[in-house]
Amino acid sequence: MFEKILIANRGEIALRIHRACREMGIRTVAVHSTADADAMHVRLADESVCIGPPPAKDSYLNIPAILTAASITGADAIHPGIGFMSENAAFAEMVEQHGFAFIGPTPEHIRLMGDKVTAKKTVQALGMPTVPGSDGALQSLDDAIKTAARIGYPVLIKAAAGGGGKGMKVADDAAGIEEAYTLARGEARAAFGNDEVYIEKYLQRPRHIEVQLLGDTHGNAVYFGERDCSIQRRHQKVIEEAPSPGLNGSEREEIGLLAADVIRRIGYRGVGTIEFLYENGKFYFIEMNTRLQIEHTISEMITGIDLVREQIRVAAGLPISYQQSEIAFNGHAIECRINAENPETFLPSPGTIVGYHPPGGLDVRVDSALYDGYRVPSNYDSMIAKLIVHGATRNECLLRLRRALEEFVIGGINTTLPLHRRLVAQPDFINGDYDIHWLEGFLERK
After folding, report:
1. Is 185 a catalytic residue?
2. Please, what CATH class does the domain formed by 207-445 belong to?
């Protein structure tokens, strides 16, 4: 097992990884920008190294600085966390070339699944259903027009690289295909330096379902249930729950076993998530995330298994601690992502926290690096806390979530807490009757 891990990230996820390491008896190294000198993960780590000024490109994306910090502190391994370098195959390769263990998949698997066209072809060959669309990247506008006519409108043109909703455009009919194609390529080029796009059938009312997976170097692979991530704004997840209120028992077992079989057959190492669109009883693969997910917490709550601990063990060459038959799913869990944003305009709201009171009680968990007096910087992602609640049933979970949101106090800045309080009171959400378009429709109506 590792003796010292460098955590190449910040905020709540860096703190989450630190806690898992501490419980495993592993020392930690925090890296930080000058903007994060007083961050909680820096305060709690055994050692810390400043790796640059506030802009992420000069600090958390500064590969030489991260590797130098690992070298001078004598770290055995590097955990990339979420975002930043977590799905950068070149970084994973350099980590291993410099003699450190990378706590994540192999560089080859990051590359394989990082290109959505290649990923789609790979899983298709292994029997996984995919959304009807182009066989690969579109070669021209004429190719887009012919493919759209074949699969039928509406269609979605998507960037082959990247994610987060960038490089995605819908064409409702033949009149809109040229504009969608041109805009998607332009966005993809600007965001990812790669203007390759492909085309898929645009589903009308799908749910976004993802399966939490773990594979090891001993040929084992398991799944930890599914999560429903359909409450989204601009393709960014806002609320997630596990299990999905839209699936039955046989459906969730079918898709879980299929996803685990796919990563077993490709020899995948580490945690990962295969994501699907689900509509009218059918699943369609959309992508695989080769890293820990923000919403891994709700899978932990319904299984009682520390996924970060398992991720570290697998990276150290140990087998998964559990057989599939030993993973039990108990109750229901929901996560609310709390952002430092105006709840009406969604404009960022950095500033100093004045008055901080997280909720507590049975089965209430808050993952956050906030503290009273902490200054939320403007340089990074606006998510500042995750509220995770578990209950024996979905109804019990909803009631506990409502109570926890009422208790949650984050003063001094604007946050999305008021939005979450409204959302959990909506009949559609209470009934589990929503899809990936529901939230944006709700925001337009209010």
Report:
1. no
2. alpha beta
